[in-house]
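Blinded run. Sample ID left blank on purpose so nobody reads anything into the name before looking at the predicted structure. Input follows.
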Amino acid sequence: MNLQQPFKVLVVDDDKSMRQSLVELLEAADWSVNALPRATQVTEHLANASPDVILSDVRMPGMSGLELLASLDRHVAPPVVLISAHGDIPMAVQAIQDGAYGFIEKPYEPRRLLTVLRHAAEQYRMRRSNARLKDRLFKLSGLDRILLGQTDAITDLRQEVLDLADTSVAVLLQGDTGTGKELVAHALHDLGRSPEAPFLALNCAALSADTFEAEMFGVAGESDGRLGAASGGTLFLDEICSCPPAAQAKLLRVIEDQQVLPVGAVSPVPVSFRVVSATNEDVVLAAEEGRLRQDLLFRLNTVVLSLPPLRQRRDDLVLLATHFLNEYAQVYEIDVPELDQDDLAALLAHDWPGNVRELRHVCERRILAARRGGGSVAQAIQSDQHFDEVPDTLRDAVAAFERELIGKAIKAHKGRMDAAAEALGIGRRTLNEKIVKLGLDKEALL
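Blinded prediction complete.
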C-alpha cells in the first residue's frame, strides 16, 4: 500500500468552466485540489494551506498570474505553473525568467499538464524535505550531546536508541519528570528512516474526547486533521497514563487499523506512524487501576526504555554542569566561572528531584549571578528550592490549579457532584474525568 500523501495543487482561474475542468482532471489523477477564482485570494489561502504546486491562469481581473508570481517569495512558496490561452513566446520567456516552473498554453494537453505539475510538486517536496533535514541535523549535533554522560546507564541508553532508531517498533519511554523523555523521542525520530517526516507530539493529558475526532482525524472538506498531516512520521504520546479513557480507545483504533475516518467522510484515510510514548508513572499499576487500557499498553510497550534519574548518575554531574555552564556563558556572553570544591560539593550533595531539567536551570542561574560578579552553585540550588512548591511546567501548574479549584468546589457543596460541576461551569462527566485524571480523593476532601 502506498501511504504517501497525494500531491496538493491550488488552481487559480477566473473562468468557472475552465476551473472546474482542471479540478475534475486533477482529482481523477488522485491529486488533492483546491480552487480559487482570483489571484488576490492566494496569499490568504497559503496562510492556512500548503499546496505542493500552484496552477494559475495568466490573464485575470485584479491580479494577473504574472503579478501573482512576482508577489510570492520564491524561497518558501510552492512552484507556479502558468497556463494561458493568450500565451506567446515572449510571455513564456518572461514567465520563466520571473521564476515560473513552467508555462502551458490552452488548449492544454492533459498528459503534459499532469507531468509538468507532478515534476514541480516532486521537486518542491524534495526541497522542503532537504530543508527540514538540514535544520534537524543542525540541531542534532550528535546523540552523545543530546544524551550527555559517561555512566553505564546513559551509555547503554544511547546504544539502545541507536539500535532502535532504524526500526519501526513501538517504544515506551519511562522516567521521572525532567529526565529527557521527549529528547529521546526526537532522537529516535531524527536518527530513524524518515527524519524529514513529521514529528507529532501529543500531550495526552490535554486531549478531549469531545473534540478528538475533529482535531485529530479532520473534517471532510475542511481540514486534514493532525494525524493525517503527520502520517509517515512519528507519533509521540506524552503522559500516556493521563489520557482520557475515551481518547485512549480512539488512539488504539488508529494504531491498530492504521487509518482515520474524518468527521463527515464516507471512506477512511490510511495513515502510518512510528509510535513512541512516554510516562513518569508505573504503567503496570496504571493498567491495574484502570487508568490505562491494557490493550493499548500492549500496543505501546514492544520495547521499554528506562531513563535514569540524575541521582543515579552522580558521576555525570560535573560533566553535565560544565556543559550547561558553557552553553549559558555563550548565551549571556561572559566567561565561564570555574567550579571550585564548594561548587562540586553542592552538586554532589543535592538530590536533584527535577533531574537534568533542574540542573540546567541551576546552571543558568549560576551564569546570571556571575554576570553580576558573584554567585555559587550552592546559592543557585538554594534559589531553586525556594520554588519547590511551584510546578515545573505550565501543564503541571494548570493541573495543580484545577486540583485546588475542584477540591474547593467539592468541599463547598459537601460532595454533591452535580452542584460542584455546575459551580465550576463544566459537565458532571467532565468533572468525574478530571477527578480521575488529577488523582483527587473525594472522600478525603470531605
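Unblinding after everyone has recorded impressions. The first strand starts at residue 8 and ends at 12.
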